[in-house]
Amino acid sequence: MRMMLLAALGACPVAHAQGALVDPTRPPTVMPAEAVGDAAQPAGRLQSILISGTRKLAVIDGVTVPLGGKVDGATLVAIDETGVKLKRGEAIETLKLYPNIERQPIEAAANKKESR
Q1: Exposed, middle or buried: residue 44 (CB in 10 Å: 0-12, 13-18, 19+)?
Q2: How far, CA to CA in Å, does 39 sit from each of 6, 42, 102?
Q3: Is the pTM of the predicted complex or chain greater than 0.70?
Q4: Looking at the domain covering 38-96, what would its CATH class be?
Q5: What pLDDT band is residue 108 in, cutting at 50, 70 and 90?
Q6: What are phi and psi of 15, to 5 degrees?
């Protein structure tokens, strides 16, 4: 009887499901085309920004790039909370962390909600 119970539990897919769990906080590996829209970024996708008292880093297409570092033949010349600037020759390219979000002062956002 015990052997049958153990055999049944071993065949149960729930017992093996832990290996297939996916981290829900992990960003998608590919951005859906509809999420990018018309604001497609020319030099790559900015994935993350790290700003501390001693350093500034950006993750672009999976590569961690320090301020002044190079990625795809361009030099990272500026990093702020919302995006980065890459210099390629004389051209400056801007990559936004959230390209489809417009920043507004808190007062303007509150006034918009009141007018609805």
Answers
A1: middle
A2: 56, 9, 12
A3: no
A4: mainly beta
A5: low
A6: -65, -25
